[in-house]
Amino acid sequence: MTNPSPPCIQLDPIGYLRTGFETLAECPASLMGNDGTSYIELLPHYAAGLHNIHLASHLIVFYWLHLSNRKPHLDATGCNGSKRGVFASRTPNRPNPIAMSVTRLIAHDQNILQVEGLDCIDGTAVIDIKPYVPQLDHIPDATIGWIPPHSEPALNR
Q: Quick one: which of 86, 82, 103 has its CA closest to 94?
């Protein structure tokens, strides 16, 4: 089977996150630890792409974890101390450190979005934004074996 993908993929930032967290130590351990206000500052030429964004209460924000360890390791320590593969975990240390967060949209002014629920370093590059669509994005019977139903995991960095 031949690989139809190009050998190199280029992603260009559409904007940057303004979170107020200057170091990893300042960041909450997970989205569950941050309901504070942050800003998504899109590059001005992408502002038109925000037309009618106010119709969404929540957004899915994709961003590039530029400070992550990108060594191609295949194991990660989970929130309960267990080992699992990097693709079976939510570790930020990945071959391609793409992260996503579901955020609450608070306000929109030109190329700036005010949101709640980001847990990353100030200045992190945004690579995409999509509206959260409950009818498409919510899977009521989804489970993950290492977190008991109806519990909050003990998370650490």
A: 86
Sign of the Cα torsion 113, 117, 122, 126 reads negative
Structure tokens at 60: 């899915």
Nearest to 70 by CA among 94, 50, 49: 94
Residue type, 54: H
pLDDT digits (tens, 9 = 90+) for 78-113: 566 677 787 887 778 888 889 999 999 999 999 999
Q: Coil, strand or helix: which one is 94?
A: coil
CATH superfamily assigned to domain 15-67+96-133: YaeB-like (2.40.30.70)
> Where are the alpha helices (H) located in 27-142, listed in sequence order?
134-137
Three-state DSSP state, 25: helix
pTM attached to this predicted model = 0.82
Question: Which residue ranges make up each domain of the chain?
Answer: 15-67+96-133
121 token code pair = 């370093």
For the record, the structure tokens of 8 come out as 């190199």
